[in-house]
Design brief:
The complex is a heterodimer. By secondary structure, chain A is an alpha/beta fold. Chain A has a single domain (6-266), classed as P-loop containing nucleotide triphosphate hydrolases (Rossmann fold). In chain A, 45% of the residues lie in helices and 24% in strands. Chain A has 11 helices and 10 strands. A 6-stranded mixed sheet of chain A has the order 6-7-8-3-9-10, with helices on both faces. Chain A is globular. Chain B has one domain: MetI-like (MetI-like fold, Orthogonal Bundle), CATH 1.10.3720. The termini of chain B are close together. The chains are: A alpha/beta, B mainly alpha. The complex binds adenosine-5'-diphosphate and magnesium ion. Magnesium ion (MG) is lined by residues 44-45, 180-181 of chain A.
């Protein structure tokens, strides 16, 4: 479709001896929140890595991925470096390992801020960067920013780490935010907070979202449109309401039923 | 969080004891080396003492065959050991870290070639490399010895750098940095170097000890710094004929060498325990 921010057409990812993702097609409009659902191992993370051009050399992509009007597959590394951050940023599943253990959190956020300011030819001095870091910390609602910028990843809670990771992604001011299972490593209360935070931020800032999760309930809260994946293939795509309440495919139906049973079991014994 | 902090004290205390012992050993030797620039009990060539005198008030460490003061030689030897250790480690670290990171980033073929190259060079005795360099430069001097030892150390540093860099490259935060558009140069500077240095530092301390000992061996073989450089190795060599009649001549430089090598290692261990936040996490 014209005007889409991300268009994936016939994406196939394969190693020399195995096809991992096959003939995947979907698109995300600017500002749209898109959910990718599938069991562990169904190829969700590989798809997101393909979109950012970060696949390992052993995995060969075929098909087409257009992001902000530029083809990703086969693009030279130099152009990819420029597009990453500018067009797309990612929040990963495990915030402890996604942050440098030896760098204070403030400096980790300052890095992408400084790069963006330089790229756009704006003032990238100490004070300007510090101001933006402060704003970002407020945006992701982190308390005690003065203490936090001097802390190391292991000194703050899992939820706070994920907020820092989100701040780092927002620091790039991307047009598409990829969140790959951003709540899976967190406890249930924190999960809900992070989901609300991400949804509110992308809505406020007009950023498109590719939200990846194996958890139907979480995707249902976030996404306007969803795609269900199984064994590297697309099973069903459509508006979230429709796919999650009246699924057409039998596999999706079994997923929905399983999720319902799980919820009922939880409610049965509080 | 609270569970972690209750586990901290024992490790901290052990780290502290090691750290202080290392600091004292290295500190005394560094002090002796620095003071030797301004003051020594006697001049190095002063042969006024009696021959092979035992330690006394006049000659704290005794005298050698020619009646020269051994304490003076020990102080100058400390200076030389430190210059050799720092110089060789600096050369070895620059060459080793650069080639190690290159190998870690390289494609299959270049990586394999560099890895094999490191292994071959490591199997090559450092002393043999040193002899080749001395032969090539046609003179034995302190600079030649340092250069030779630095080259000899570089593949060891290169191999460990390559392995450490590969480990860091596999971490999520590198992917996270790449996905936000960080260039490779910035990733090496901001993420890879800081994360390999705590481990590399301990290894470099070990290399420092090896370099000091290798210089002693070179001097012992007459391939180190020529006189009047009184390195501990040369002192050992000169004392070998009189080791039974005047044992202090061999024992004292040997002890000094031992103290420096042990001290550096303890210091490195202690520093790592203190300053590496990831390790403090447990
Ligand atoms: N580098 C790789 N080489 C070969 N197979 C891989 C590689 N990375 C992932 N895979 C395989 O691809 C499949 C999809 O992985 P992934 O995209 O990580 O799944 P998920 O949906 O859980 O994110 C899995 O079966 C996984 O084992
Ligand atoms: Mg995954």
């Amino acid at each position: 479709m014209m005007g889409d921010l991300l268009t994936v057409r016939g994406l196939t990812l394969a190693t020399p001896d195995k096809v991992l993702v096959e003939d995947l097609s979907f698109s995300i409009a600017p500002g749209e929140r898109f959910g990718l659902i599938g069991e562990s191992g169904s190829g969700k993370s590989l798809t997101s890595l393909a979109v950012t051009g970060l696949l390992e050399p052993s995995i060969r992509p075929a098909g087409s991925i257009t992001l902000a009007g530029e083809e990703i597959i086969g693009a030279p590394e130099k152009r990819l470096v420029r597009m990453r951050g500018d067009a797309v940023a990612t929040v990963f599943q495990e915030p402890l390992t996604a942050l440098d253990p030896l760098m204070p959190l403030g400096r980790q956020i300052a890095g992408p801020v400084r790069r963006r300011l330089k790229r756009k030819g704006q003032d990238a001095g100490r004070a300007a960067v510090a101001r933006e870091v402060q704003t970002l910390l407020e945006q992701v609602r982190l308390p005690e920013p003065e203490r936090l910028i001097r802390s190391y990843p292991h000194e703050v809670s899992g939820g706070q780490r994920q907020r820092v990771a989100i701040a780092m992604a927002l620091a790039c001011q991307p047009r598409l935010l990829i969140a790959d299972e951003p709540t899976t490593a967190l406890d249930v209360t924190t999960q809900a907070e992070i989901v609300r935070l991400i949804t509110a931020l992308v809505e406020d800032l007009g950023i498109a979202l590719l939200f990846i999760s194996h958890d139907l309930a979480v995707v249902g809260q976030v996404a306007e449109r969803v795609m269900v994946m199984r064994d590297g293939r697309s099973i069903e795509t459509g508006p979230a309401q429709q796919v999650l309440t009246r699924p057409e495919d039998s596999y999706t139906r079994s997923l929905v039923a399983a999720a319902r049973r799980f919820d009922q079991a939880l409610e049965g014994q509080p | 969080m609270s569970a972690e902090s209750t586990e901290l004290p024992p490790r901290r205390r052990r780290g502290n004891a090691t750290f202080w012992l290392g600091l004292i050993l290295v500190g005394v030797i560094v002090l002796a080396g620095i003071v030797s620039f301004f003051w020594t009990p006697y001049a190095l060539s002063d042969m006024a003492g009696g021959r092979l005198e035992a330690p006394s008030a006049a000659h704290w460490a005794g005298t050698d065959r020619l009646g020269r003061d051994l304490f003076t030689q020990l102080m100058i030897g400390a200076r030389i050991a430190l210059i050799v250790g720092c110089g060789a480690v600096a050369i070895g670290a620059v060459i080793g870290v650069a080639t190690g990171i290159l190998a870690a980033f390289a494609t299959r073929f270049l990586d394999d070639a560099l890895a094999a190259f490191f292994d071959i060079l490591i199997a090559f005795p450092t002393l043999l490399i040193a002899m080749l360099v001395v032969a090539a430069r046609e003179e034995a001097s302190l600079g030649t010895a340092i250069l030779a030892l630095g080259i000899g150390l570089s593949p060891i540093v290169g191999r460990i750098t390559r392995i450490l860099t590969k480990q860091v490259l596999g971490q999520d935060y590198i992917t996270a940095a790449r996905v936000s558009g960080t260039s490779w140069g910035a990733i090496v500077y901001w993420h890879i170097l800081p994360n390999i240095v705590p481990f590399l530092g301990v290894n470099l301390a070990l290399q420092f000890g090896l370099a000091v000992m290798a210089e002693a061996s070179l001097s012992y073989l007459g391939l180190g710094a020529p006189p009047p450089n009184a390195s501990w190795g040369r002192m050992l060599q000169e004392a070998q004929g009189t080791v039974y009649t005047a044992p202090w001549g061999a024992v004292l430089p040997g002890l000094a060498l031992f103290a420096l090598v042990i001290g550096i290692n303890l210091l490195a261990d202690g520093l790592r325990d203190r300053f590496d936040p990831a390790r403090r996490d447990g």
